[in-house]
Amino acid sequence: MFVQNRLAAWVAGVTSQIKLPLRVELWNGQKIDFSNDVPRVTIRLPQASAARYLLTPSLSNLGTAYVEGAIEVKGAAHDMIDIVNALARSTLKADGKLARIVRSFTHDRKRDAESIRYHYDVSNEFYQQFLDPQMVYSCAYFARGDEDLATAQIRKIDHILAKIRVQPGHTLLDIGCGWGALVIRAAQKFGARCVGITLSENQCALARQRVKAAGLEHLVEIRLQDYRDVRGTFDRVTSVGMFEHVGIRHLPDYFAIIHRLLAEDGVAMNHGITSTDPDNGETPYGGGEFIQKYVFPHGELAHIGEVLKAMQRGNLEAYDVENLRRHYARTLSIWTDNFEARADRARELAGDKRFRIWHVYLAGCSYAFDQDWISLYQIVCGKAGRHPRVLPWSREYMYS
Question: Which of 164, 249, 329, 342 is the 20 to 30 Å CA partner of 217?
């Protein structure tokens, strides 16, 4: 009875502020509606002890409860995320202990490889359930906003290659090459001689298969390799969706390595997620804690100002900076819809727990980008103090 009284008081407090299309089903069969609307989300508490997750409804608490099976949640992922965030806002203080916590992790080759394999080596077929046919696992680029995902991902790759002005015969290094879409496109379209590196064995194996199937083995090499171990000089260097794994304290060294690998008049481009908190904090209400625990172990997001400062310390000069936050919100929204459309197969491939992780992770990240809690920047750069003769004076060349 004590738990039910606490829940009743909490529900009264929430509904006095906001009406939600939410139903909570208790362990004794009681149903509590948070408005007169038809519920779009139902949270079932199988036992009284599960009430504690609702009484402190941080994104981490409720996310953990859902993933671990302590509560049951029914509804579309977008609705689940909207409602959970509304519960958090109405109950928790945004500037309290669940505000944007700043974390720092130790990064070395062993830990980084383990983190990458935890996230990416689920199965290639699992990722095929929600990605485009080329399996590009990074922010797409929408020229109008109504393109299908496959078109927008090709546009993104072409946008990158145009920005760094890849030319026939150029050598190109792609750090964190995923399943090889960018290096394959660069070789096919420009005849560039490419090296793609990844720490994921699954990605490496499929990327090599795709290179062979495209008849590009003479132009493209896929390596299972840490970026810190690459040697040589490249006319162009790209890093797409990888530097989030580097660690904030290690960013100057990361950019210094890109400087070392870049030809004297070479051009590089870093495409990655950033925090919108000037102090490099995580997303609020425990969202960052959930991501650290279940999705990207040891991942760290720096503010764009911190990134540019680290880039300068790595002896690189930023030539062009573009914010693609809205593009990633849209990309993740499409991934979420694709994931739910193929939910049965995704669950078979990943198991119940990992399925639930991805179910809320994709929609949650879309929400975070939409709310400007996190962002995405493409930064074109080159060696500091050099006159970038290879780049035109204006940005017109990127869109021609």
Answer: 164
Residue 377: the pLDDT is: 98
Token pair 């179910």 in the structure block, residue: 359
From residue 201, alpha-carbon distances to 116, 127, 206, 349, 350 in Å are: 10, 14, 9, 17, 17
Residue 64 sits in a domain whose CATH number is 3.30.1050.10
What are residue 212's phi and psi, to 5 degrees?
Answer: -65, -45
91, 123, 156 — which closes off a domain? 91
Q: Which residues have a catalytic role annotated?
A: 365
Q: Got the DSSP string for 229-293?
A: G--S-EEEEEEES-GGGT-GGGHHHHHHHHHHHEEEEEEEEEEEEEESSTT-PPPTTTHHHHHHH
Give the model confidence (pLDDT) of 297-353 as tens digits.
Answer: 878 899 999 999 999 999 999 999 999 999 999 999 999 999 999 999 999 999 999
29 and 118 inside one domain: no
Closest CA to 166 of 188, 135, 139: 188
Give CA separation, 66 vs 31, 59, 91, 322, 333, in Å: 19, 10, 19, 36, 20
Distance CA 22, CA 32 (A): 8
Domain housing 115: 109-398
Q: Is residue 133 part of a domain?
A: yes
Task: Round to whole Å and give the CA distance between 338 and 289.
Answer: 25
Domain-located, residue 99: no
For residues 33 and 13, is the Cβ–Cβ distance under 8 A? no
Q: Which of 95, 83, 91, 15 is nearest to 57 (CA)?
A: 91
Note whether residue 104 is domain-resident: no
Distance CA 343, CA 3 (A): 34
Residues 28, 340: Cα–Cα separation, whole Å: 30
Written as six digits, the tokens of 40 are 């779009």
Token pair belonging to 124 = 């290639």
- Tell me the two tokens of residue 379: 């930064």
Using CA atoms in the order 233, 312, 115, 120, what is the torsion angle rounded to 10 degrees? -60
Q: How many domains does the chain have?
A: 2
Q: What is the CATH number of the domain that holds 190?
A: 3.40.50.150
% of the chain beyond a pLDDT of 90: 78
